[in-house]
Design brief:
- By secondary structure, this protein is an alpha/beta fold.
- It folds into two domains: 2-163, 3-Layer(aba) Sandwich (Rossmann fold); 171-290, N-(1-d-carboxylethyl)-l-norvaline Dehydrogenase, domain 2 (Orthogonal Bundle), CATH 1.10.1040.
- The chain is 54% helix and 14% strand.
- The protein has 14 helices and nine strands.
- The strands form two sheets. It has a six-stranded parallel sheet with strand order 3-2-1-4-5-6, sandwiched between helices.
- Helix 1 links the parallel strand 1 (2-6) and strand 2.
- Helix 8 runs parallel beside helix 14.
């Protein structure tokens, strides 16, 4: 089976790497062609446009930054939908609003292709190991078509409803995580005068009811961030800010208030202004711990 991956950023590259290791023939496209070189060296085929990727692949995976990027890759010049996609399957894995996925599904299915959404929980490490958590939205028949690919990427798949349901679930899953890194920083600020070693501090929180799975699984990078190192982001501060804005936009359409999320976003905006936007979320905790009011 030929699988095309459009968007080879951190997660897209990790997903493509996993697919290659699982025996799929992988075709890749990225707006910056040089970023596909490691994948080409590993056996993937790089193409010059999303249209050519769509023409050559049986299954098309997209994992893109936001709704604008999705519109460009699908409907721009030489976009995916400028190719003949009749009978193909699109798996859309970006973290965006449900309305974005629904509108895209209409355009894709109008061209004769199948469509499912499957945003995922997890970062690049789990992606390369096939241990993501996938939240699927789509019709039963199309979900069944997508499973042979998604089962190679995910340790757990949950079909949560029609198209749009996966996007809602992914945003909901991300919400406590992004709020946690800010709350963790505030907790650390309360005890920064103790002078406890960062590794020990991270370990104590990780072994308590105050520690999330994200903290417990990443004690090393967290300790590095608390020790003053700028840890490159697998899920960075700017991505968290983008997701929080999306959460708040969705809440607004549903008559729901997210006061904690709104307050956390303001704190993350401050952190980004201080220069940690490209850094891991743990750097937000480290920033707030050392921040002077």
């Amino acid at each position: 089976m030929k699988v095309g991956v459009s968007g080879t950023g951190k997660m897209g590259s990790a997903i493509a790497t996993r697919l290659l290791a699982s025996g799929f023939e992988v075709i890749v496209w990225n707006r910056t062609p040089a970023k596909t070189k490691p994948l080409v060296d590993a056996g993937a085929t790089s193409v010059p446009s999303p249209a050519e990727l769509a023409a050559r692949a049986d299954v098309i995976i997209t994992i893109l930054t936001d709704a604008n990027a999705i519109d460009s890759v699908y409907s721009g010049a030489n976009g995916i939908l400028s190719a003949d996609v009749n009978g193909k399957l699109v798996i859309e894995m970006s973290t965006v609003r449900p309305e974005t996925e629904k509108a895209l599904a209409e355009r894709v299915t109008a061209r004769g292709a199948g469509f499912v959404e499957c945003p995922v929980g997890g970062t690049t490490g789990p992606a390369k190991e096939g241990k993501l958590f996938g939240f699927i939205g789509g019709a039963d028949a199309e979900v069944a078509r997508a499973r042979p690919v998604l089962e190679k990427l995910c340790r757990r798949l949950e079909h949560v409803g029609p198209v749009g349901a996966g996007a809602s679930m992914k945003l909901a899953i991300n919400l406590p995580l992004v709020v946690f890194w800010q709350a963790f920083g505030e907790a650390l600020a309360l005890c920064r005068e103790l002078g406890v070693d960062p590794q020990r501090m991270a370990d104590m929180f990780g072994d308590s009811s105050g520690g999330t799975n994200a903290l417990k699984n990443r004690l090393g990078p967290v300790a590095q961030a608390l020790g003053g190192q700028e840890v490159p982001g697998t899920y960075d501060v700017d991505s968290m800010r983008k997701d929080m804005r999306t959460m708040l936009e969705l809440a607004g359409t549903r008559g729901v208030e997210l006061p904690v999320t709104a307050a956390a976003l303001a704190c993350y905006d401050e952190g980004a202004s201080a220069g940690i936007g490209s850094m891991d979320g743990a750097n937000q905790s480290a920033y707030w711990r050392s921040r002077k009011s």
